[in-house]
Amino acid sequence: MSPLKLCCRPMSVGVLIAVTGELDATNTGQFESYLDSARLPGEPVLLDLGGLTFMDSSGLHVLLRLNAAAGEEGGAVHLAAIRDVPARMLEITGVWDALNIHPGVDEAAAAAQAGHADRHRETS
């Protein structure tokens, strides 16, 4: 098993969290705690999942809870560079279409920036 590694970097809008290794029932608590401490309510969260090699249903549930919480707070979650097993998990469960998924981090950042600017115009 590849250990889960998480790395956070602030962006001009929100945060970018790189996720590498395997995400399963043994470490979803760690993942969820990290997300809660790294994100700012109402700000976009970008998850670079290019290094995520495995994800089970417990990891999927964390992503869905994060997406729901961010939406309730006026923010958004953007997933980038999903590949292999994690991508297949999202596809077969039908979750792929319910999340903001982008081919790479640059596309996710551009979408987050545009969405954040749109939300600020609506509230002004």
SS content category:
alpha/beta
What's the pLDDT, averaged over the residues?
Answer: 92
How large is the count of helical segments?
A: 4
The CATH topology is: Transcription Regulator spoIIAA
Helicity level = 40-55%
Poorly predicted parts: none
Which architecture name does CATH use? 2-Layer Sandwich
Distance between the termini: 48 Å
The gross shape turns out to be globular
- Element pattern in H and E: EEHEHEHEH
Work out the radius of gyration. 14 Å
The number of domains is 1
Strand order of the largest sheet: 1-2-3-4-5
Strand count, sense and barrel status of the largest sheet are: 5 strands, mixed
CATH homology superfamily? STAS domain
Amount of beta strand: 25-35%
The top level CATH class name: Alpha Beta
Number-wise, the strands total 5
Describe the structure.
- The protein is α/β, with parallel strands linked by helices.
- The chain has one domain (5-123): STAS domain (Transcription Regulator spoIIAA).
- It contains four helices and five strands; from the N terminus they run ββαβαβαβα.
- Helix 1 runs parallel beside helix 2 (57-72).
- It holds the Pfam family STAS.
